[in-house]
Amino acid sequence: MAIQIILNFILAFIWIFLSGSYTLNNLLLGFILGLGFVYLFSGILPGRFYFIKIYKILKLAVVFFVELLKANIDVLKIVLQPKLKNEPGFFVYHTDLKTDWQIVLLSNLITLTPGTVVLGISDDRKKIYIHSIDFSTKEEEVEGIKSSLEKVVREVGED
Predict the structure, then answer these.
(1) Does residue 5 come out as left (phi exceeding 0), alpha (psi in the -120 to 50 range) or beta?
(2) For residue range 13-24, what is the model confidence (pLDDT) as tens digits?
(3) Would you give the end-to-end CA distance of the chain in angstroms?
(4) Are 114 and 132 in contact (CB under 8 A)?
């Protein structure tokens, strides 16, 4: 992947030097042309086409920010209630992720969303122990994590 990115930037700068126009628009045009060149030759370059990985990382960031916004609104609703009606609780989340970095990334994303904290990870790396500030049902919490955060973390980790 790194070779493809470097090659793309080299091609963009070669484009600038050959065209003789040193503008940002021309650099962008050279980058897009280099991207097309790298895509055409991605079969002989090592690794998959790198732009797919960048797209998946951007998708992860967007999904996380949407979850962050929803969690902030939920916590705000709890805080602004005249009488607290939330039910905090602990639960165990069973993950299907295989690599350590994916499990750590998922755990950090869960902890960064307001209202949830990861307390630990089991030794076999299959269970994540989580505390939630408003724990309605375990199935609802687990489905929310599995359908959003774990899904995009798994996509980023695919090669």
Answers:
(1) alpha
(2) 999 999 988 899
(3) 11
(4) no
Q: How far is CA 129 from CA 7, 25, 50, in A?
A: 43, 49, 34
- Residue 159, pLDDT score: 64
Q: What is the pLDDT of residues 7-66, one digit of tens each?
A: 999 999 999 999 988 899 999 999 999 999 999 988 888 888 888 889 999 999 999 999
CA 130 to CA 119: how far, in whole Å?
6
**The model's pTM:** 0.80
Residue with tokens 């280099």: 34
Q: Would you call 158 helix, strand, or coil by DSSP?
A: coil
Q: Which amino acid is located at 16 in the chain?
A: I
Residue 17, pLDDT score? 93
Locus of tokens 């916590």:
75
**Token duo for residue 31:** 């980058």
Contact 62, 68 (CB under 8 A): no
Token reading at 85: 């009606």
In angstroms, the CA 137 to CA 103 distance is 23
